[in-house]
Amino acid sequence: MTVVVKNLKLALPPGGDRAHAVDGVSFELSAGKILCVVGESGSGKSMCAHALMGLLPDTVTAESGEILFEGKNLLSLSPAEWLALRGRGIAMVFQEPMTALNPLMRIGEQIAEMFEAHGLLTPKERQRKALALIREVGLPDPERAVRAYPHQLSGGQRQRAMIAMALALEPTVLVADEPTTALDVTTQAQILKLIRDLQRRRNMAVMFITHDFGVVAEIADRVVVLQHGKVVEQGTADDVLLRPQHPYTRALLAAVPTLQPPPRTPLNDRSKAVEVIGLGKTYVSGGGWFRAERRVQAAKDVSFDIFRGETLGLVGESGSGKSSVARLVMRLIEPDAGTVRMGGVDLTRIGGKTLREQRRRIQMVFQDPFASLNPRRKVGNIITDGPIAHGVDPAAARKRAGELLSLVGLNASAMERFPHEFSGGQRQRIGIARALALDPEILVADEAVSALDVSVQAQVLDLLEDLKARLGLSMLFITHDLRVAAQICDRIAVMQHGAIVELKSASLLFAAPEHAYTRELLSAVPGRTSSSKAA
Amino acid sequence: MISFIAQRIAKAVIVLLALVVMNFFLIRMAPGDPALVMAGEAGAGDQLFVAQLREKFGLDKPLPVQLFLYVKGIVSLDLGFSFRQQMPVAKLILDRLPATLLLTGTAFAISFAFGVLFGALAARFAGTWADTAITVAALIFYATPLFWVALMAILLFSVTMDWLPSFGYETVGAGYTGLAHVLDVAAHLILPATTIGLFFMATYARMTRASMLEVVRLDFVKTARAKGLSDAIIQRRHVLRNALLPVVTLAGLQAGTLVGGAVLTETVFAWPGIGRLIYEALLQRDYNLLLGVFVVCSAMVLAFNLITDLVYRSVDPRIEFAT
Quick check: is B292 in a domain? Predict the structure, then answer.
């Protein structure tokens, strides 16, 4: 065994909602094996990772237990011993490669710093090693990458650089904390493969933290499932995924959406709620007296209809233009070309008061339930602001807000509370209630469940489905997650470089993808094969 | 890069001309003109004398014509003639400029270096007595009016202790040369430079501290710790460098105003610089001199903004020369 964690107890500061972040957790890491630690937010999985690196927040203390590595209990290391160990014996890769790299230092310098920290090699040799590492992790154009700043690389390239850094001193253990969560699915597939390959080549023990069972199926040899800081189940990947014993593991697995779209009742009403015809939008940046401008085509001749009662999915990777299209449809940004028609109204041709009145009909649910609600306003005000602006009597608006809150599964007393008093899932429900307060005909959901844990995600998806049926809504559902799209969409449009490359019913799209890009996206979804087995 | 600078200079010239026009009218909106002030001082208040003076100064011409003549002069780098002092404005300003630059430059260097140092120390030892002491001292110097600090400094270091001279640029009539002269000027410089410096030091210290405490929470600092880097290197290389970005912006904005911004201090310490020139020109309604000083100050602000942008570009690679 490379690392043995025995009965680890990490105490949280007093006054929190629980006494221990991690409560009696035991697991082992062995050379050449990947251990996936799975759990929802707040399960303590990141704390375990940080404990292994000696990077726990000051407020969290190791109360009991031990972490044995190379014959030493890490919990009793001196600060100097930690400095010697970090990066050399155990290295770490973080979730968000953009923020995990120093924006003011070149990639090569940041990798070379690993050697410097441990007093190894001369500056020249460090640079040479950095270049070799960059080659090993497959960054394109290594000579340039070594001199590049983080912002000059893409997300996937940055994560490769992070991995190169972590591997620099050939550590025996690699701790990866959600290393692919911030990446697109095709990039994620590449990074998973890279970690897999390197781990085999170097016979490392890997602790891989994730909330995504698809990733687990893709990469894990062994799995530990955490809930509220306790291990509820651990075993080989096959055992946990295919023969889960604990009800929580079963519930988590059941909440993972499958790529098989459920049978959907065909729409009997074929009238169009929205018609989008030839939308075009080009962002121009820079430009001026002496400088060439940069153009990004966010939408190229985008056309689709959404029928009454239908959910149209818009899927694609970051930068494909799906959010721009949503904003164009809502006319939050001005299109360069094309029209958006709702009934008899051309949304792109109206302005002023008429536009403001029409806005009521199309409402948005945002991705981040933390950022999209004003933290200084009570939930009741957040929900009633819209209707009151549209001339609804305040008392009536408040009464309706109470009804909406119970409709989305919250207590009407929520009106008097502030957003920070709610969990992520509850906040997303508030966001939905806010959108519904204006009695829209169309709901635009921009990555509305992407920030939520799978079990919460399943609940919010159910809620949206239910509301849509009850209120006769149409929905434009934007997501990068094909599993989610499969579950909720009637038809799906796949976007790449600002254009729709394929648009067809969900069942057809998953059964018989035609466009090469669609096929690439589908094959990159982690855990494709085993998750269908598990389900 | 070259085209960026060329473009910025072209824009700066336009801004400068707009400022000249604005200042021109602003000054003339104030009651009284140089002719009235001079006639009043001479005790010769009759209309004919005033009219003669106005004709001599060109003040009898219609405003647009005056403006045209003035702008024409500026374009050919002629700042006009001060009738009060009977000297070209450019010469008056150039005579005073070195003293001001010496004062404000020293003040700026002191305030930036020590401000960042104290801010970094406060952040590093956040929550301890050292942090509290630095923060409270910074708050006091930030809140106290400059002239009061100046007067107290004179009282303490010149009057009571008799360590430092209380006014002027050098000891009058001493005739020092060489090193003795340098030391003499330096002794005169300490009080006024420190007075200005303390205020700016306080702002830099507070900003550096806040900025560092923010940066230290960022992910890349955790990455640095995960590398096994020592705390000293992490603080200096990863935290401080990133934390300095907003401080550099602030410093750039303030550096531009330092030329004209020392009016109070120069007046209290009788420092023969631009600040006192402004004060005198204002009292005497010396239009041309006042306008000339304004032009030079504006040009300084614009120049320092450009320099700040260039410095910023070299400390933050994410900034491109966007327009």
Answer: no
How many CB atoms sit inside 10 A of residue B81's CB? 20
Q: Minimal Cα distance from B315: which residue of A?
A: A104
Q: Which run of H or E residues covers position A494?
A: strand A491-496
Complex ipTM over 0.90? no
The predicted model gives B77-88 an average pLDDT of 82
Q: Do B242 and A104 touch (CB under 8 A)?
A: yes
Please give the structure tokens belonging to residue A163.
């991995």
Q: d(Cα B226, Cα B234) in Å, to the nearest integer?
A: 11
CATH of the domain at B173: 1.10.3720.10
- pLDDT band for position A126 (cuts 50, 70, 90): very high
pLDDT band at B45 (very low <50, low <70, confident <90, very high): low
Evaluate whether residue B162 is within a structural domain. Answer: yes
Q: How far apart are CA B298 and CA A187, in angstroms?
A: 52
Residues of B in contact with A165 (CB under 8 A): 223, 227
Query: Chain A contact for B49, CB < 8 A?
Result: no
Sheet containing strand A345-346, edge to edge, reads A293-307, A272-286, A337-342, A345-346
User: Does B35 have pLDDT greater than 80?
Assistant: no
CB contact under 8 A, A87 and B228: yes
- CA A205 to each of CA A169, A178, A189, A222, A383: distance values in angstroms, whole numbers, following the listed order: 14, 16, 20, 11, 50
B127 touches chain A (CB under 8 A): no
How far does the CA of residue A47 sit from the closest CA of chain B (Å)? 14
pLDDT in tens, A496-518: 989 999 999 999 999 999 999 99
Residues A151 and A277 in one domain: no
CB contact under 8 A, B219 and A99: yes
How confident is the model at residue A130, as a pLDDT?
94
The percent of residues above 90 in pLDDT, for chain B, comes to 21
Give B322's contacts in chain A (Cβ within 8 Å): 285-286, 291
- Pairing mode, strands A230-236 and A362-365: unpaired
- Of A140, A168, A196, which marks where a domain is finished? A168
Contact list, A103 vs chain B (CB under 8 Å): 220, 242, 316-318
Select the more confidently predicted residue: A270 or A330: A330
Q: In the listed set A149, A168, A187, which residue is the last one of a domain according to the structure?
A: A168
Out of A92, A100, A291, whose CB is closest to B220?
Answer: A100
Structural domain boundaries, residue B127: 98-273
CA dist B66 and B62 (Å) reads 6
Q: Which among A88, A104, A118 is the top mutation candidate for probing chain B, defined by the most B β-carbons within 10 Å of its own β-carbon?
A: A104
Its domain, for residue A493, covers 272-361+440-534
pLDDT above 80: residue A175: yes
- The total of structural domains in chain A comes to 2
8 Å CB contact of B3 and A114: no
pLDDT tens figures, B97-147: 888 889 988 999 999 999 999 999 999 898 899 999 999 999 998 888 888
Mean pLDDT of A28-49: 90
Using pLDDT thresholds of 50, 70 and 90, give the confidence band for residue A530: very low
Say how many CA atoms lie within 13 Å of A298 toward its Cβ.
Answer: 21
pLDDT for A65: 92
Is the residue at A14 inside a domain?
Answer: no
Provide the domain count of chain B: 1
